[in-house]
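User: My advisor, Dr. K., asked me to get a structural model of this assembly before our group meeting. I'm new to this, so sorry if the format is off. These are the inputs:
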Amino acid sequence: MSDHAAYILAAYGLTVIVVLGVIAAIVIDRRRIERALERFPVRGAETDNRS
Amino acid sequence: MLWFANPANFLWLANRLIPWLAGLSAAILAVGLYLAFFVAPADYQQGDTVRIMFIHVPAAWLSMFCYGLMALAALGTLVWRHPLADAAQQAAAPLGAAFTFICLVTGSLWGKPMWGTWWVWDARLTSVLVLFIIYLGLIALWRTIEEPALAGRAAAILTLVGCVNLPIIKFSVDWWNTLHQPASVFRLGGPTIHPSMLWPLLIMALGATLLFVTLHLMATRNEILRRRLRRLSILAVQDRRAVPTAEGARS
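Assistant: The format is fine. Below is the predicted structure of the whole assembly, which you can bring to the meeting.
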């Protein structure tokens, strides 16, 4: 690409790592919360009755 | 809008919107990346290094957009005490920190070959660093205060105080003599960038904004579920305490 290819690749690579890290953190957090919620019996007022 | 502000309605809508938004943002970012790498020409001064701008600039815009969103949510928390506003604000802070981090690091990676230095303490760079520190401070504040309502109010006040940094970031290149170049897209006289570079930049910005909205919906959904879990945990503890008391009353 050019003399500065390392800078360009580093910028894009780091962006991909950060974005994938954020996505993974959110997905893992969701699974952890849902597993914890499964321990509780269903309460009418507490559930999302649309889903 | 009020219908959307109900947490149950928000969850219903978010569950349906997230897959579509995720797909759309991935498609637009793919088109943007193709245009950025294979269609946009190299800059006559910067050469191929200008391609870093296609992620640096959207990240910079989103770092400020996210803070503006948090300020609106902070008003919702303080004025209307709406639980969804607090959840939305709390969910946005790590995303804002991530995009500000990307902005700072990609700017640094552009600055080294172009300016000859990784960092200078000029007004634009320093004010964006301050924004990053405010994001980290807000995340720490939510984690430090155990009572969610109190943490929400404290974070809302800090968010509104931190708003003073947004015009400083935007106008720092006009108010002070900075190494950072002045605005070249959102300016009174129109963009100064050639359309061959402007369009890939705008498409990347649209894709990054949709990605941010998708991640924010996902994170806000997590916050709502986390609060539901906390409420259920408290109710379960209260139920366990109530059982021996009732048995004691019978005996």
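One thing worth pointing out at the meeting: The two ends of chain A are 50 Å apart (CA to CA).

User: Perfect, thanks a lot.
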